[in-house]
Write a structure and sequence with these properties.
This protein is α/β, with parallel strands linked by helices. It is 30% helix and 28% strand. It is built from 6 helices and 10 strands, in the order E-H-E-E-H-E-H-E-H-E-H-E-H-E-E-E. Helix 4 links the parallel strand 5 and strand 6. The protein is globular and about 45 Å long. The N and C termini lie far apart (34 Å).
Length: 226
């Protein structure tokens, strides 16, 4: 069955893809990624669009991009996503896969939205142990670096770190090993399903704040390029 994988450019999406490759019932034929229209960067991770293109090229899987304004409202997001999924349905794609691990509300939301289009949600990593997943990433050979951290949980020094067992040992106790609560985000630069590793150069780090009032949060981003 044809599958579109919601591709964040990070480790969880990469591990989900790896597991889908092991299942002969599914064939990932397209990646789906939201991109900031003004800055040409992957939403949330802040990675340059050309790095997303490099991943797609190394995987030999085309990427469909949904371009969104910097702070889209719910209606704008849903409309753009629906249009993209309707286009994918014309390619006989009826399954949308995600790298989510344990956030029940997010899973329910995705399932409900897809159901309105007659599509099925698939979660290859659901309820896996996130600590064990870090070891699995290292053993498989999926290499990812931290490109964004939530300043509430981690400091700037974690930017650029490779996600491996040593990284896991250095994480504070209140941080999920895979950053499932949004504590950090990553970029995958090498994987067993890449033709060759992506050689990236590390640039400057920047600090930005988002939200209002008590919901306002600060994030450190590492700028990387090819």
């Amino acid at each position: 069955m044809k599958v579109v994988l919601n591709w964040s450019s990070g480790k969880d999406a990469a591990l989900a893809y790896y597991h889908l490759l092991q299942n002969s019932n599914y064939r990932v034929v397209k990646l789906l990624t939201t991109v900031n229209l003004e800055h040409g960067r992957v939403v949330m991770h802040g990675v340059r669009e050309q790095l997303l293109d490099a991943q797609s090229k190394q995987m030999n899987v085309p990427v469909k991009k949904i371009y969104l304004p910097a702070s889209p409202d719910d209606v704008t997001y849903k409309t753009a996503m629906q249009l993209a999924l309707e286009e994918l349905q014309k390619e006989d794609i009826a399954i949308s896969a995600f790298g989510d691990i344990f956030l029940e509300d997010l899973r329910a939301y995705r399932e409900q939205q897809l159901a309105t289009l007659g599509m099925t949600a698939l979660f290859p990593l659901w309820k896996k142990d996130t600590r064990g997943m870090v070891g699995e990433l290292e053993d498989i050979g999926i290499e990812a670096m931290v490109v964004c951290v939530n300043a509430k949980y981690l400091d700037e020094s974690f930017l650029g770190r490779k996600v491996d067992r040593q990284f896991l040992a250095d994480l504070p106790a209140n941080v999920d090993p895979c950053g499932e609560n949004g504590e950090f985000h990553t970029f995958v630069y090498n994987a067993p399903f890449f033709d060759t590793p992506i050689a990236v150069s590390k640039g400057e780090s920047v600090y930005r704040e988002y939200g209002e009032g008590e919901l306002r949060s600060g994030f450190y981003f590492l700028d990387i390029d090819v």
